[in-house]
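Try this one yourself first.
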């Protein structure tokens, strides 16, 4: 009988020690969690003071949850910063032409102004209003294009004649004394895309070249490795290699003062549309030459 009592006592003591040890481990873990929550940017991991495999497995799962939570928080902070910057850019882009419009309206309301000046000011107001309208349309189009349900009508499109159509409407290159070199390969190819949106992409890129080209603008169309390529190249002095990293970002513009007539959405819209149409768009800058390449699988 005495052996049974001794045995039960030993077991009881063992269980009590295990319970105390487990309680200590839980308390230590709770302290680590409290410290980690007070230092949200800390990368330290919870550590077990016991060799208990189940406890260690539990802490591994908790560490993974902390790591995921930290990543979510970092992404949220980055997105919040980006949203604030985008709102600032939108406000600045809208305020610049609006301030100009208000200023010239106030001048017109001055009874001492000459009639000839009134007509001049009205012309300026009209131009500024068109700029403002263009900005608002860009913002609206971006919100639509980013939607999952944005409608696209796919068809097989011959690229060569489409490029010719786009370029015919741009006579401004000659007025700006920019040499245009068009290199279209003899072998035509078709791509599957939405013709209206493809036109938008091409027009955005041509307008971008017209705005920033210094002396030449080159368009190449060719096939390689089962892909149809359209390459746009122009020389520019306003770009840097650092700009290329952000060239497709929303509202990014080389004009850091944002005093021009550019929201920085043209290339962003082009990238979104290319990805929706299963194409690829890339940009590079070397020896003062900016290049944008469009690529699709040939049908």
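Now uncover the answer:
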């Amino acid at each position: 009988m005495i052996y049974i009592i001794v045995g039960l006592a030993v077991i009881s003591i063992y269980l009590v020690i295990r319970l105390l040890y487990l309680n200590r481990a839980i308390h230590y873990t709770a302290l680590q969690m409290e410290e980690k929550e007070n230092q949200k940017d800390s990368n330290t991991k919870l550590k077990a003071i016991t060799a208990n495999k189940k406890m260690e497995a539990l802490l591994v799962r908790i560490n993974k949850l902390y790591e995921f939570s930290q990543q979510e928080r970092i992404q949220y902070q980055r997105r919040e910063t980006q949203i604030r910057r985008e709102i600032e850019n939108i406000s600045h882009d809208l305020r610049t032409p609006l301030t100009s419009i208000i200023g010239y309206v106030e001048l017109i309301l001055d009874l001492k102004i000459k009639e000839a000046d009134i007509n001049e000011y009205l012309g300026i107001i009209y131009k500024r209003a068109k700029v403002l309208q263009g900005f608002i349309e860009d913002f609206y189009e971006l919100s639509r294009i980013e939607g999952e349900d944005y409608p696209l009508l796919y068809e097989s499109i011959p690229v060569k004649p489409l490029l010719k159509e786009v370029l015919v409407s741009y006579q401004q290159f000659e007025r700006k004394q920019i040499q245009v070199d068009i290199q279209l390969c003899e072998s035509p190819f078709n791509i599957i895309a939405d013709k209206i949106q493809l036109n938008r992409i091409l027009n955005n890129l041509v307008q971008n070249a017209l705005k920033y080209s210094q002396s030449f603008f080159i368009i190449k169309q060719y096939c390689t490795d089962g892909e149809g390529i359209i390459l746009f190249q122009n020389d520019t002095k306003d770009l840097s290699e650092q700009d290329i990293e952000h060239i497709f970002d929303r509202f990014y513009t080389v004009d850091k003062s944002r005093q021009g007539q550019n929201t920085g959405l043209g290339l962003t819209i082009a990238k979104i549309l290319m990805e929706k149409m299963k194409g690829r768009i890339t940009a590079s800058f070397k020896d003062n030459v900016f290049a944008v390449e469009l690529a699709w699988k040939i049908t």
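Discussion: The beta strands are 154-158, 179-184, 190-194, 216-224, 227-235, 280-286, 289-297. The helical segments are 2-38, 53-109, 115-145, 159-168, 172-175, 195-212, 241-244, 266-276.
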